[in-house]
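Supplementary Methods. Inverse-folding protocol.

Structures were first reduced to a discrete structure-token string of length 249. This string, shown here, constituted the complete conditioning input.
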């Protein structure tokens, strides 16, 4: 038979355990809400998952992204804060992947938790083979609304609005960056994807043309077309990992 002290101790332990779990659950939910507010409006962190931006960004690099630069969206609302400035040629940006489809309930509720607890690497969205579909991509803006852009032999030429002359991208873009072109497989023709050929495309209002710096290993506007401004989630501003290559971008 339990003594009075033993019964009291056992009940206290159960109450303490339930109280601790409630406190822990509240702390986790509050942390998640704060994370969503900060990452969607002020400062977000991402891990580079592909080699499409080599040599500028390498796989496994971790970066800070500023949603404020282009006007952050209020959490769960369509309204935006005023933009610090408009997206410009040469900006490296995080975009919502054109291949990503937001899941329906209940996965849409589960998705933020998966991304939060997996440090942006987990997702409930999978393709037919079961592979995770990345929600975000990192690309460079090479053309802005009003520009006409074409590509020949992987060289990009831009005719700004109001001009009648094409200019090579790196003569028009103030940032210095390198592009990777390693040569096409034997038999690859210009009609195939990633061939380095693009007929002239004129961008409409709020349209942006994005490319990866690693031109032959990048899914970008050559295959899925110009992106609307709403899909530009923020400007890449700083690499914080690895420490040996950390610094402003």
């Amino acid at each position: 038979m339990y003594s009075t002290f033993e019964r009291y101790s056992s009940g206290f332990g159960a109450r303490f355990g339930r109280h601790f779990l409630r406190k822990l659950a509240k702390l986790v939910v509050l942390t998640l809400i704060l994370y969503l507010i900060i990452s969607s409006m002020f400062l977000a962190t991402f891990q580079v998952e592909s080699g499409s931006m080599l040599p500028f960004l390498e796989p496994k690099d971790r970066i800070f992204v500023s949603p404020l630069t282009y006007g952050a969206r209020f959490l769960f609302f369509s309204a935006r804060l005023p933009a610090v400035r408009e997206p410009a040629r040469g900006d490296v940006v995080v975009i919502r992947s054109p291949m990503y489809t937001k899941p329906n309930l209940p996965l849409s509720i589960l998705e933020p938790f998966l991304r939060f607890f997996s440090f942006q690497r987990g997702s409930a969205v999978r393709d037919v083979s079961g592979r995770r579909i990345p929600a975000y991509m990192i690309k460079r803006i090479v053309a802005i609304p009003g520009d006409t852009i074409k590509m020949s032999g992987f060289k990009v030429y831009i005719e700004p609005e109001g001009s009648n002359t094409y200019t090579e991208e790196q003569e028009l873009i103030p940032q210095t960056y390198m592009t990777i072109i390693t040569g096409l497989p034997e038999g690859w023709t210009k009609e195939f994807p990633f061939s380095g050929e693009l007929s002239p495309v004129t961008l409409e209002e709020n349209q942006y043309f994005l490319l990866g710096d690693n031109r032959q290993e990048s899914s970008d506007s050559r295959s899925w077309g110009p992106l609307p401004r709403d899909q530009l989630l923020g400007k890449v501003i700083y690499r914080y990992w690895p420490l040996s290559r950390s610094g402003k971008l």
